[in-house]
TrEMBL record:
Isomerase listed as a keyword: no
Full protein name: Cytochrome b561 domain-containing protein
Species per Swiss-Prot/TrEMBL record: Methanosarcina siciliae T4/M
Keywords, alphabetical: Membrane, Transmembrane, Transmembrane helix
Transmembrane segments: 6-29, 49-69, 81-99, 111-129, 141-163, 175-197, 227-246, 258-281
Amino acid sequence: MYESWVGHALIAIISLVLMVYTLTTGAMLRGRIKRSRGNIFKLHKRDGIYFGTFMLGSFIYGLLIKLQHGESILSSVHGKLGLILILIIVLQIIPGLVLKNRARYRGLHKIVGYSLAPILVIDASWGLYNGVVAGTKSSLVLLHSISGGLAALALVWIFLEILYAADKSLARARIASYFTAFLVTAGCWIAGGYNYLTAYGFRVKPVILAGPHPWAHEIVMEAKEHIFVFLPIIVFALSITLHIFDRDAFQGETKSRRALTMVAYLALFMVLLMFLMGAVISNAGKTGTEV
């Protein structure tokens, strides 16, 4: 368990940003999205090295923290996922640096690279959940957190497909929007709402109000409840719009794509804000039980 969930959150955020940037340049290399200016291969190679180095350092840091507490790093799902991530990253970087003929390796490199994204999001969500929720663990809270993380990843996918639109970008953006709508509905609305009605209101809320941080419920949770209502509506509106959008219009109308980008950005901001609010609320609940 981390001494501070804030430190773990910062590590997760930096890792996710580096991963998204690496995957974006990789998608540009493959022609999946429109290329930006500059030497994309050089950028992709550099970003991959930065990402791999940071992840390795994070893993070693986590290992040291575990050893200080006398725990095995493989004693938790979070640790096992971290080890899997390191192995995948090594398989990505080393052959890319060593092999001269990358043609045969390119397909596997792409598949393994894209698999990194959901695994890293799940691992980051799981680690933050362990660090914040601690002794008051709930499978619904974990499902809620992972769903939010994966929904954010899908929204980033939509954002990139719209921003760097290519021939098949609309089709992929539609798939990502359906995935987002499902995650927001199942994970945020159903799982989160059920947990709020059956557990939070009876067990966590009184602890927070009686603890040193009552504002976590009075302000943060109240704001989160309003976002909770509007987020699925925005996500479904985005998904429906992408579904009915004409491919030629999507490619040709810059203003329409800009509007879709802003909606996707708004939804992403709301998901990330809810994620942060959830961490603050859960941490307040944990602190309240320790008083």
